[in-house]
């Protein structure tokens, strides 16, 4: 059996045809496919506005900037995430303050958020770990009390639902960030997006994507002629190209199929592993629908993890660890003094869990192989 990676994209003929059409058109960047993709994201998520950009990291960065994060500001986020979440706060001159996670979902715990609130805190970035939505109502109510912006890092959670509303609809947040990296639910190669219902944020995001430039007449300080534009803030080139958005449009049409397939594999794993002692399976709270970005199994005993991880790799199974807690990275320890023991639940999750392969294109034989090998290793 070939190597089975923990996640991978699924590209079919409709995707390729869409990209080829875009490549043959007059404009391969900043053409019609970008707003079309954005409109499709709005329709899917239920948000009023969407801004597509070059990566999920870029989307997080401009969201923090649009929220007004700057020097000296603090932003509360989860240590159980990819580095990009916390780094985006640093890009703005702010400081990420971590709050520990729930033991079962590995999502940020609102009670821990409350302990970290100070006058300097300006925003909260919950991460929907593995595609399981965080406690958005509780987080929103904390944010409202202290006048904070809520930015959802939904890079794992396209297609997930929380209490009947789609992630990305921004029902309990100001902005939601997605990534279209190939291991995520849909891909544009590299790419990302921000959704929001707030027009003020939408207009800032558009400018931040493109050097801080506006050409809209009513926003200009003066008018020199039809060529005239103004740079009104410091933005970036975070644009995404038309052929990437063409891929995004066709991938989005396949998303529901992808989600169904992911869930079917999860059901299979749950059934295969439910009776194994020493193994704790991922949960799905009754009021959410997870988008199942990854499937993390937890071993009751730390000591088993490394052996099993190595055994999986020897059998050609690309197990992963999600994640090394961000506060334990040398950069964060060195610059902010974080240390082992600061976030015990996130650290325990790191020590005890392993991610096994889960992606829509997984064949029946592949998922059987993964389940059999894991069961054998656990004996
Ligand atoms: C993938 C990911 C990102 C970054 O997205 P890129 O598109 O790779 O820049 C940020 N946060 C989380 C939780 C992610 O999984």
CATH topology of the largest domain: Aspartate Aminotransferase, domain 2
Main β-sheet description: 7 strands, mixed
What ligands are attached or bound here? pyridoxal-5'-phosphate
- As residue ranges, the low-confidence spans are none
What does this structure look like?
With 379 residues, the protein is of the alpha/beta class. The protein has two domains: 13-253, 3-Layer(aba) Sandwich (Aspartate Aminotransferase, domain 2), CATH 3.40.640.10; 255-378, Aspartate Aminotransferase, domain 1, CATH 3.90.1150. 39% of the residues lie in helices and 14% in strands. It has helices at 13-24, 33-45, 56-66, 83-91, 110-116, 136-146, 199-209, 242-273, 303-314, 330-336, 344-352, 364-378; strands at residues 49-53, 74-77, 95-98, 121-125, 149-153, 161-162, 165-166, 175-179, 192-196, 213-214, 230-231, 279-280, 288-289, 295-299, 353-356. The strands form four sheets. Strands 1-9-8-5-4-2-3 form a seven-stranded mixed β-sheet, sandwiched between helices. A three-stranded antiparallel β-sheet has the order 7-6-13, with no helix packed on it. The protein has a three-stranded antiparallel β-sheet with strand order 12-14-15. Helix 6 (136-146) links the parallel strand 4 and strand 5. Helix 1 runs antiparallel to helix 8. The radius of gyration is 21 Å and the shape is globular. The two termini are 22 Å apart. The model has no long low-confidence stretch (mean pLDDT 96). The chain binds pyridoxal-5'-phosphate (PLP). Pyridoxal-5'-phosphate (PLP) binds next to helix 3 and helix 4.
């Amino acid at each position: 059996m070939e190597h089975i990676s923990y996640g991978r994209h699924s590209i079919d003929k409709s995707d390729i045809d869409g990209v080829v059409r875009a490549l043959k058109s007059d404009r391969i960047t900043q053409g019609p496919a970008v707003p079309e993709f954005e409109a499709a994201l709005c329709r899917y998520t239920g948000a009023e506005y969407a801004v597509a950009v070059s990566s999920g990291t870029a989307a997080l960065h401009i969201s923090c900037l649009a929220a007004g994060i700057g020097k000296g500001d603090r932003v509360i986020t989860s240590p159980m995430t990819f580095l990009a979440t916390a780094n985006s706060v640093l890009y703005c001159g702010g400081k990420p303050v971590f709050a520990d996670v729930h033991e079962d979902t590995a999502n940020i715990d609102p009670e821990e958020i409350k302990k970290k609130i100070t006058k300097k805190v300006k925003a909260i970035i919950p991460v929907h770990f593995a595609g399981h939505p965080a406690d958005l109502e509780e987080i929103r109510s904390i944010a409202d009390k202290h006048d904070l912006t809520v930015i959802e890092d939904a890079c794992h959670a396209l297609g997930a639902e929380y209490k009947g509303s789609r992630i990305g609809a921004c029902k309990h947040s100001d902005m939601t960030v997605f990534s279209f990296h190939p291991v995520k639910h849909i891909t544009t190669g590299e790419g990302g997006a921000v959704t929001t219902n707030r027009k003020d944020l939408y207009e800032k995001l558009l400018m931040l994507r493109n050097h801080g430039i506006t050409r809209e007449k009513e926003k200009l300080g003066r008018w020199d002629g039809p060529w005239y534009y103004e740079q009104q803030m410091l933005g970036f080139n975070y644009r995404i190209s038309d052929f990437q958005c063409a891929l995004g449009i066709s991938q989005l049409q396949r998303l529901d199929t992808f989600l169904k397939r992911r869930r079917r594999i999860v059901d299979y794993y749950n059934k295969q592993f439910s009776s194994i002692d020493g193994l704790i399976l991922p949960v799905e709270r009754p009021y959410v629908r997870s988008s199942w970005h990854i499937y993390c199994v937890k071993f009751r005993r730390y000591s088993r993890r490394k052996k099993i991880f190595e055994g999986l790799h020897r059998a050609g199974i690309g197990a992963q660890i999600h994640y090394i807690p961000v506060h334990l990275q040398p950069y964060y320890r060195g610059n902010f003094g974080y240390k082992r023991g600061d976030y015990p639940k996130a650290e325990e999750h790191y020590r005890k869990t392993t991610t096994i392969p889960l992606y829509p294109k997984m064949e029946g034989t592949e998922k059987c192989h993964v389940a059999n090998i894991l069961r054998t290793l656990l004996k």
